[in-house]
Amino acid sequence: MPTTGNPVLNLSVFAVFVLITLYVVYRVSSRNVTASDYYAAGSSFTGAQNGVALSGDFLSAASFLGISGGIAAHGYDGFLYSVGWVVAWLVGLLLIAEGLRNTGRFTVGDVLAFRMKQRPVRAAAANATLVISFFYMIAQMAGAGGLIALLLNVTSKWGQAVLIALVGMVMVLYVLVGGMKGTTWVQIIKAVLLLLCVTLMSIFLLGKFGFSLSAIMQQATEMNTLGEAVLDPGAKYGFSAMSKLDFVSLALSLVLGIASLPHVLMRFYTVPNAAEARRSVVWATWTMVIFYLCTLVIGFGAMALVGSDKIAAAPGGENSAAPLLAFEIGGAVLLGIVSAVAFATILAVVAGLTLAASASFAHDVYANVIKRGDVEPRREIRVARLTAVVVGILSIVGGIAANGQNVAFLVSLALALAASANLSTILYTIFWRRFNTTGTLWSIYGGLGSCLVLIIFSPVMSGAKTSIFPDVDFAWFPLGNPGLVSIPFSFLCGFLATIFSKREPELDAKAAEMEVRAISGIGVRT
Amino acid sequence: MTKAIRSPGEAQQGYREIRGFASFDDPETLSYVDSDGNPKFELIRQTDEFRTLRRRLTTFVFPMTALFLASYLTFVLLSAYAKELVSTKVIGVINLGILLGLGQFVTSIIITLGYARYAKRRLDPQRTLLAEKIGVEE
C-alpha cells in the first residue's frame, strides 16, 4: 500500500534510532548512583539543552501528527488549537520556572510541601501527579497503536498490542538504564531530529509555492470539500453555543495546563540554577514557535498536495497527514524518517512520564509519607526503578485498552487535570504567604476531584455516539473539557479554605525561607 | 534581638557595608547568617533590598501574565464568537484570524525576550546586591 511506504524501511530506521539512543543513554548514565542523578540528572544540563528537551516533551506524536493533521483536515480550527501550545510557555516562564527551581529538588511535592505539613501535602501532590501522568500516558500509548497501524501497516488488534508492548518495554529500559539524564538525552536527540525534519519539509513546501503561504492555502482550499470555508473558524469546533464554550474551555486548559504537567515541572530540576531554568524556557519558546509555524505550513501543504479526502481515507485518518505529505514530497525514505521520528517521540515522552510518576511515588509517597524521610537514597532509587517497571506495565495495559480512542481528547483532559490540581497550588504557595496546609489540600483535591467528577459526567464518558460508553447516558455536564469550571474552582477552594482555617505560626519560619528562596535564590545552595 | 555570633569572613563584609561608619551602640545585631552559616530568612525578608527585588518581580510578571492571557483569550473568543470578523481576508486568502494567531506567536516571543532582558538588567543585579549584603553566595 503506497500510503504506508515500506514498513521494513520504516521499522529499520526506527530500530537504528533506538539503538543509537540506547547507546547514548548507556554512555551518559554509567554513574547513575545518587538520587539527584536519577531524578534530576545531577542538575547538570545547561539551559539550552534543557530547553530543547522541554520542547521535546511537547513535540509529542499527539502534537506533531495530531496538529499537522488537524490543520490538514480542519484548516483554521487546527491552527487555533496549535496557538495555545506556544502561549502556554509564558506561564512557565513568568510564574513557575524560577520559583520552582529554587524551592524544590526532585518532584512537585517538594515545592508544595516545602512550608506545609509534610505528609498530607506530599500524599496529595503524589496523587495528583499519578492521576495526571496516567491520563497523559494513556493518551500517548493509545496514539502509538494508531501510529503503528499507519506506519507499519499492522492492522490486527493483536499485532498492534504486541507492538505497543514492545514500545513500552523499550521505554522502561530507557528509564531504568538512563534515569533523568538518559531520558533527557533521548528527548534532545528526538527534538532536534523532529525540528530538522519539519523545518526542511516547510522550506521545501514554501519553495514549491514561491514562498507564499497564501498560495499554499489557496491551493489547499481547492483540495478540501469545504472550499474556502476551511480557512474560517468552525470547521471542527462547530457553531452551537455549547461547542463554542467547549472550545474556550479547552483553550483555557491548554494555556494553563501545559506548564503544570508534572513531567514538565520536573524538567526544571535538571538545570543547576534559576537563571538556567529561565534560559531553558526561552529556548523552549523559540523551538515551539518554529515548530508550530512549520506545522501550519505542513498542515496546509498536506491539504494542498495530498488532499483532505485521501487523508481522511488513510489508515490512521487525520494523524496520517504529515507522513502522507512526507511520502508525497520525499518518497519512502523521507516517510521512513518521519515515521521513525514520530515513533521515537512517543518513546521519549512516555519515558519522561514514567520517570515523573515513579519519582513522585518513590520520593513523595515512599520516602516521605511511608518512611517519614528516613530512608537511604539507594533504597529510594530502587523503589523508584521498581515503580517505573510497574508504571510501564500499567501503561502498556492501558495503552492496549485505549487503542483507538481519540488522542487529542485524552491529552486535553490531562491538561485540564494538571491546570486544576497543580497551577493554583503552586502559584499560591510561591506568591501568597498566608496560604496554609488546609488551603493546599483543598486546592489540590478540589481541583483534581471536581475535574474528575466533571469528566465522568461529561459527554466524553456517556450519552453521545463518540463517548467511551455510548450505550448509556449519565451525562449532565455539557462540556467535553471541564477546565472552564474546575480551574477557577480550585483557585476558589484554595482561597476559601485558607481564609477559613487557622494560620500556622509554627511554619512561619519555613514560609519566610520559601519566600526568600523562591524570589532571590538565597539559601538554595547552602 | 538576640546577640548573634557573626561568622567570619563573608558575614562581616555585609555588616560593614550596612554600618558604613564607626558606631559604638549595638554593633552586633545585623548579621544575616547564623553561627552555622545558614541565612536568617525572616531578617532577609525584611530588608529593603529584598523588598525591592520582590516588588520588581511582581510588578513585571503579574501585569504581563494578565496581558498575554487577555490577548490569547481575545483571540480565542473572537475565533469562537466573531466568525465574520476573523474571516476577513487580509493578504491573499490569509484572513485576520490567521494573522491574529501568528500575532500570538509574535507577542509570546516579545514577552519572553522582554522578560529575559528585564531579569538580566533589573532582577539579577538586585539578587547579587542582596547576596552581597547578606554575605552568602546566591
From TrEMBL, chain A:
<dbReference type="Pfam" id="PF00474">
    <property type="entry name" value="SSF"/>
</dbReference>
<feature type="transmembrane region" description="Helical">
    <location>
        <begin position="329"/>
        <end position="362"/>
    </location>
</feature>
<feature type="transmembrane region" description="Helical">
    <location>
        <begin position="188"/>
        <end position="207"/>
    </location>
</feature>
<feature type="transmembrane region" description="Helical">
    <location>
        <begin position="247"/>
        <end position="269"/>
    </location>
</feature>
<keyword id="KW-1133">Transmembrane helix</keyword>
<keyword id="KW-0472">Membrane</keyword>
<dbReference type="GO" id="GO:0006847">
    <property type="term" value="P:plasma membrane acetate transport"/>
</dbReference>
<dbReference type="GO" id="GO:0005886">
    <property type="term" value="C:plasma membrane"/>
</dbReference>
<dbReference type="InterPro" id="IPR001734">
    <property type="entry name" value="Na/solute_symporter"/>
</dbReference>
<keyword id="KW-0813">Transport</keyword>
<feature type="transmembrane region" description="Helical">
    <location>
        <begin position="158"/>
        <end position="176"/>
    </location>
</feature>
<keyword id="KW-0769">Symport</keyword>
<keyword id="KW-0812">Transmembrane</keyword>
<feature type="transmembrane region" description="Helical">
    <location>
        <begin position="482"/>
        <end position="500"/>
    </location>
</feature>
<feature type="transmembrane region" description="Helical">
    <location>
        <begin position="6"/>
        <end position="26"/>
    </location>
</feature>
<feature type="transmembrane region" description="Helical">
    <location>
        <begin position="408"/>
        <end position="430"/>
    </location>
</feature>
<feature type="transmembrane region" description="Helical">
    <location>
        <begin position="383"/>
        <end position="402"/>
    </location>
</feature>
<protein>
    <submittedName>
        <fullName>Cation/acetate symporter</fullName>
    </submittedName>
</protein>
<feature type="transmembrane region" description="Helical">
    <location>
        <begin position="124"/>
        <end position="152"/>
    </location>
</feature>
<comment type="similarity">
    <text>Belongs to the sodium:solute symporter (SSF) (TC 2.A.21) family.</text>
</comment>
<feature type="transmembrane region" description="Helical">
    <location>
        <begin position="442"/>
        <end position="462"/>
    </location>
</feature>
<feature type="transmembrane region" description="Helical">
    <location>
        <begin position="281"/>
        <end position="306"/>
    </location>
</feature>
TrEMBL record, chain B:
<keyword id="KW-1133">Transmembrane helix</keyword>
<feature type="transmembrane region" description="Helical">
    <location>
        <begin position="60"/>
        <end position="81"/>
    </location>
</feature>
<dbReference type="InterPro" id="IPR007436">
    <property type="entry name" value="DUF485"/>
</dbReference>
<feature type="transmembrane region" description="Helical">
    <location>
        <begin position="93"/>
        <end position="116"/>
    </location>
</feature>
<keyword id="KW-0812">Transmembrane</keyword>
<protein>
    <submittedName>
        <fullName>Uncharacterized membrane protein, DUF485 family</fullName>
    </submittedName>
</protein>
<dbReference type="Pfam" id="PF04341">
    <property type="entry name" value="DUF485"/>
</dbReference>
<keyword id="KW-0472">Membrane</keyword>
